Amino acid sequence: MSEKKGEISYGEPVGVVTAQSIGERSTQMVLRTFHSAGITSQVVSAGLPRLIEILDARKKPKHPTMTITFDKGVASDYESVKEIKKKIEEVRVGSLVGSFEENLKAGTMVLNMDREAMTEHSMTVKKIMDIISARFPDVELSNEGEKISVRYKKKKDIKSVRTAFVNIRGEIVSGVEGIEKAVVNSEGNAFYISTSGSNLSGVLEVDGVKEENVYTNDVFGIFNVLGVEAARTAILNEMMQVFAIEDTKINVKHAMLIADAMTHGGTVKSIGRHGLAGDKESVFARAAYEETIKHFVNAAFFSETDRLRGVAENIIIGRQISVGTGRVKLMIKNKDLEKVKPAD
After folding, report:
1. Average pLDDT per run of 10 along the chain, which is 344 residues long?
2. Which domain holds residue 55?
3. Which of 72, 213, 297, 341 has the fewest CB within 10 Å, making it most exposed?
4. pTM of structure
């Protein structure tokens, strides 16, 4: 190791060292999840399951969450944060209904609205009816007090009626789709919002929310909205957070190398056979990971050539690998060789 901090020796097998560093510690992780503070019944993946999610580049995390903070002026005002929380939390027709009655044969449904739920989410019967009318032109609505009567106008086959009524009760009337639950929490004198569910693009459109104050554990959500560099940072942060929760320390450079490898192609790729391992140029290196026979058959069929430039393929055939001292080649001039005295 060089005296300068952060530098490594020429030929150092950084990939192998990183794999050992992450792999050894991940085998000691707890197979568990934990409850996130402030979010009722919200479970957050931790330990090995979360690490696998990150390295497999899953499109959607099993337990997506968001944290939304605010600048000083807003963060100290509970009522302002609560109003923003109302704009963010997903509210569906079904969550505002106390009870309902269906007659699928006649094509009718009666929704008995819950007054307290409507008041809590600043909704009225008229607003709900306007939203249903705009999005479901095949139904006819009427109301009596807090009862909304729905009649399906088209051909009344039971399947179509049932589908329409289920969709009506599942229709979003306010909030951001995907944010199933939002809770106002506090840290010191500052209030912030924690959510169950994630929708970065939708939350950023809410008035009062600033881009720099929003964080989500959904790596692909970050990639789709903010780009590959932001996704790379998210992968790094999420990995380090997993190890921090487990009270396990790793060199951040190792996590950075993995994040770089997963995103260097301009998108987010997994570590496994459908990502980095499956994209290797070497036939032997691909076959050494998984699906050995498939790779050899395909290589023979398409007349592929393996130039044996990597580590895995050279180990397989018993050649010296090009890392460490194996990367150094020594040359000597013939005239100098003549000066070397043979051993007695």
Report:
1. 64 87 80 50 67 90 91 88 91 91 89 90 90 90 89 84 92 91 89 92 91 92 95 94 86 93 92 81 85 88 89 88 84 82 68
2. 17-64+217-263
3. 341
4. 0.78
